[in-house]
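SUBJECT: protein chain
CONTENTS: sequence, structure tokens:
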Amino acid sequence: MKKLTLALTFGALTAPAIAHAECGEVSVAEMNWASGQIITNITAFLMEQGYGCDVKIVQSATTTAITSLAENNEPDIVPELWVNSAQAYFRLEEEGKVRKAADVFAEGGSENWWVPSYLVEEHPELATIEGVLANPELVGGRFHNCPDGWGCRIANDNLVQAFEFEEHGMDVFNHGSGETLPASMASAYENREPWFGYYWGPTAVLGRYDMVAVDMGPYDADIHACNQTQDCENPRKSSYPAAPVLTVVTTDFAERNPDIFELVSNISFGTQELSNLLAWQKDNAASAEEAAVHFLTTNTDTWSGWVNDAATERLSGLIE
């Protein structure tokens, strides 16, 4: 465990003996939320220690990553891209600039507006957005919104307008970071206080607390597509769809490094598997690197199916 932690933290075991000229430098996005950070650390470790890559981790977020791919053709690899919140991805894919490597969430991701189950038990009308907006005081009169840089922020801002939050007396609190949003949910739940806001899964906080997804009405693909854009002229009502969550690779990188493209194409997590890992991280106040260590040392059967035989041999003596 100590040896693996050192390798993750300092790159101490990236020895010249395992270097591969055909891999070289690889840039990998690290999203600014827990699951994205863990997935990037797992991916980077397997590339460095199994394939001899020189990995550069690039701090990013949904909007930042898709803009950089469009304008700069980098980073080489973007794990956990929520493409429903990054519509430009589909244009880039059609133009042949990027490729889908994997559904990094095997069952897809969920995006919803949520209220605690104990509120719905006391006030069943809060299970629908109409009931919430008719009774804003029951949810604290506040909607907990995404931070800047998250793709959901654009959609939520448009939906707030479409559902006429201001006219219904509902304030919007825009969180400043990815830490304060789930912390507000956890604090409210543990104190059995009102809470209403956006979150996604799989995540530790939704695995730990019994929340009810508010019925936002039917999903309309065209309306949702407009709501995802900052210049949507006519925001309208639509629920969120089930979200494909991908690992995306630039076409240039996939063509020059097929072994790494194959690796990241294999990396995928089940919803419960990832939720359990996120809950472990939360319960142990662990960093993303420490959570990656925990996964790698306790899920050998899983990651060994992701890497090729040569990488398996290199990694077998390191991960004990």
Notes: The first strand starts at residue 25 and ends at 31. The beta strands are 25-31, 54-60, 77-82, 98-103, 110-116, 142-145, 171-174, 197-201, 211-213, 245-250. The mean pLDDT is 91. The CA atoms of residues 143 and 172 lie 5 Å apart.
